[in-house]
Amino acid sequence: MKKVICFKTMIGYCNLYPDKILLVRKGNPEEVNPKNEEQRLWKYLVFYTITGLFLAWLAYVDRYNLPMCLWLGLTSAFLLFSVLRSIILKESSAALMERDKIRSVRFKKGAKYLTRSRFIVVFEDRKRCNRIRYIFLPGSLNDGPKATEEALRAMKEAGYYPFSDLKEYPEGVSQHNEDE
């Protein structure tokens, strides 16, 4: 029988199998369809792009009202920058990452009340392209330090952290763990 280690993430659970990592929203890993989950990120990117372009158009139309124009323009720029960053860094929302396709797992400790702790998993997708998947852990208001310790212990016990077989890291990803 396979030994499964589970820990809580920001919006669900991470199940660590000996041969794969499976991220699920609810506690039941049998409900996940990996092929369906892989395309989830594009829906958000298209929505943010349309919203950003619409806000840019509104800023242009309302260009004589300076405070509103600045607010709409900056919000639009932030949304469009976030979409481009996500595409360039090749971020993924894949729910299933097989162990033999995982290239590295790093941990980034969050600043209390400011950012969340997270694991950064670099893996190879079905098209043989390196992708980045962030596994965000619960924040400070949701018992974050305790959940972070539990997640680190689970990842070490399953043998996923520290883990690296990359010779060259994708652009935008440091090769050092940032937990110290």
Question: Can you describe this structure?
Answer:
The chain has 180 residues and is of the alpha+beta class. The protein contains four helices and eight strands. The mean pLDDT is 84.
List keywords for this structure.
180 residues; alpha+beta; 4-stranded antiparallel beta sheet; 22% strand; elongated
Q: Helices and strands in order, then pairings?
A:
Layout: E1 5-8, E2 13-16, E3 20-24, H1 34-37, H2 40-61, H3 66-88, E4 96-98, E5 102-108, E6 118-124, E7 130-136, H4 144-158, E8 163-164
Antiparallel strand pairs: 1-2, 2-3, 3-4, 5-6, 5-8, 6-7
Average pLDDT score = 84
Helix-strand pattern: EEEHHHEEEEHE
What is the terminal separation in angstroms?
A: 36 Å
> Structural class of the secondary structure composition?
alpha+beta
Proportion of residues in extended strands: 15-25%
Shape: elongated
The Rg value, from CA coordinates, equals 19 Å
Largest sheet: 4 strands, antiparallel
Would you report the number of β strands? 8
Uncertain spans: none
Q: Helix proportion of residues, in percent?
A: 25-40%
| Arrangement of strands in the largest sheet | 1-2-3-4
Question: Which oligomeric form is depicted?
Answer: single chain
Number of helices: 4
